[in-house]
C-alpha cells in the first residue's frame, strides 16, 4: 500500500510539474527569469515556515543533528531550480525536462549501486534506465533535425539539462536521507530553500532589478509558487518517503511524457509522427519500469 501511495504522489508531482513548466515558460516571456524564481520560492518557503511554526523546536533539533545533509540539499536545490528557471526563459520546456529526466534513472542507479542486493534487479534496472535514456535522446535528436537549432545551442541544451538531472538525483537521495532521519515532508520543505533564496536575491540585486511587486502580479507569483514549487515538491517529498530512490527515478520520466502531450495543445508547437511514436514508446517503458519497481525495487 505504501509503495502504491508513493507512486501516486510521484505521478501527482509529475502532472503538476509538466503543466506548471509550460505556465512558467509563458510567464517568463513577460517577467525577468530570476524575479519569477525569487518570488515563487519566497512564497513557498513562507507557506511551509508558517505550517511548521508549532514544530519549530523539533525542526531546529533535526537541522542541528543533520546539518550537513540540510546544507547539501539547500545547495543542490539552488542549482537545480536556478538552472531550470534560467533555461526555461530561453528554451522549450519539453526540451529541458526531456534531458533532465533522461539522465535521472541512470544517475540514481549508479549512485545507489552498492545498495542493490540482487544483481539481476540491478541489471534490469540498468537496462530500463538505458532504454529511457536512448528514447529521450532519440526524441531530442529528431527535434534537432526538424527544427532550426544550431549545434552549439543543442549541445548547451544537453549540458545544462544533464547537469540538472545529475543534481536532481543527488537532491532526491538527500531528501530520502532526511525523511529517514525523522523529517516530515512539510519539515523538509521548510528548510530546503534558503540558499536558493539568497542566491536569487543576490542575482536580482546585481542585475539592478526592482524588488517591488505590483498587486496585479502578486496573484500570478502566488499561483506559480503553489503550482510549480510548493505543491509539486511536497508531493515529491511524500513519494520519496514511501518508495526507494530507484522507484522515484523511474516514475519521474513521466514528466517529459506528460509535457510533450500537453505541448501538442500549445499554439505553434511542431511535432512529427516519428517523434510522437517515440513519446508513446517512452510511455510504455515508463509503465514497464513502474510495474517492475512496484514488485522488485530494493
Write a structural description.
With 298 residues, this protein is mainly alpha-helical. It has one domain (2-296). The chain is built from 13 helices and no strands. It has helices spanning 2-27, 33-51, 56-65, 67-88, 93-111, 119-146, 151-180, 185-191, 194-207, 218-242, 245-251, 254-263, 273-296. Helix 1 (2-27) crosses helix 12 and helix 8 (185-191) crosses helix 10. It is globular, with a radius of gyration of 19 Å. The two termini are 16 Å apart. The relative contact order is 0.21.
List keywords for this structure.
single chain, 298 residues, mainly alpha, 81% helix
Blueprint (SSEs and pairs):
Layout: H1 2-27, H2 33-51, H3 56-65, H4 67-88, H5 93-111, H6 119-146, H7 151-180, H8 185-191, H9 194-207, H10 218-242, H11 245-251, H12 254-263, H13 273-296
Helix pairs in contact: 1-10, 1-12, 2-4, 2-8, 2-9, 2-10, 4-7, 4-9, 5-6, 5-7, 5-11, 5-12, 6-13, 8-10, 11-13
Summarize the structure.
The chain has 298 residues and is mainly alpha-helical.
Residue ranges: pLDDT <50 for 5 or more in a row? none
> Roughly what is the average pLDDT, rounded to an integer?
83
The tally of beta strands, per DSSP, is: 0
Quaternary status:
single chain
Sheet of most strands: none
Helix/strand-derived category reads mainly alpha
The domain count comes to 1
- The radius of gyration over CA amounts to 19 Å
Series of secondary-structure elements, N-terminal to C-terminal: HHHHHHHHHHHHH
N/C terminus separation: 16 Å
Share of residues in strands: under 5%
The rough form would be described as globular
Amino acid at each position: 500500500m505504501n509503495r502504491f501511495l508513493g507512486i501516486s504522489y510521484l505521478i501527482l508531482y509529475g502532472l503538476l510539474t509538466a503543466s506548471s513548466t509550460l505556465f512558467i515558460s509563458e510567464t517568463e516571456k513577460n517577467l525577468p527569469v530570476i524575479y519569477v524564481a525569487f518570488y515563487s520560492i519566497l512564497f513557498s518557503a513562507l507557506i511551509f515556515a508558517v505550517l511548521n511554526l508549532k514544530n519549530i523546536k523539533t525542526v531546529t533539533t533535526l537541522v542541528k543533528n543533520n546539518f550537513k545533509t540540510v546544507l547539501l540539499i539547500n545547495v543542490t536545490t539552488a542549482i537545480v531550480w536556478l538552472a531550470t528557471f534560467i533555461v526555461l526563459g530561453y528554451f522549450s520546456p519539453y526540451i529541458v525536462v526531456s534531458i533532465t529526466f533522461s539522465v535521472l534513472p541512470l544517475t540514481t542507479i549508479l549512485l545507489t549501486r552498492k545498495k542493490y542486493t540482487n544483481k539481476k534487479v540491478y541489471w534490469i534496472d540498468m537496462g530500463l534506465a538505458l532504454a529511457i535514456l536512448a528514447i529521450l535522446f532519440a526524441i531530442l535528436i529528431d527535434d534537432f533535425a526538424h527544427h532550426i537549432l544550431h549545434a552549439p545551442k543543442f549541445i548547451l541544451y544537453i549540458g545544462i539539462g544533464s547537469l540538472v538531472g545529475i543534481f536532481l538525483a543527488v537532491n532526491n537521495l538527500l531528501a530520502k536521507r532526511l525523511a529517514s532521519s525523522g523529517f516530515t515532508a512539510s519539515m523538509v520543505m521548510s528548510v530546503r530553500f534558503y540558499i536558493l533564496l539568497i542566491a536569487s536575491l543576490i542575482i536580482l540585486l546585481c542585475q539592478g532589478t526592482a524588488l517591488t511587486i505590483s498587486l496585479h502580479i502578486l496573484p500570478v507569483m502566488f499561483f506559480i509558487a503553489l503550482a510549480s514549487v510548493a505543491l509539486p515538491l511536497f508531493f515529491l517529498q511524500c513519494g520519496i518517503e514511501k518508495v526507494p530512490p530507484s522507484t522515484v527515478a523511474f516514475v519521474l520520466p513521466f514528466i517529459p511524457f506528460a509535457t510533450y502531450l500537453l505541448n501538442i495543445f500549445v499554439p505553434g508547437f511542431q511535432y512529427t509522427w516519428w517523434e510522437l511514436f517515440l513519446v508513446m514508446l517512452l510511455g510504455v517503458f515508463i509503465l514497464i519500469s513502474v510495474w517492475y519497481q512496484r514488485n522488485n525495487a530494493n
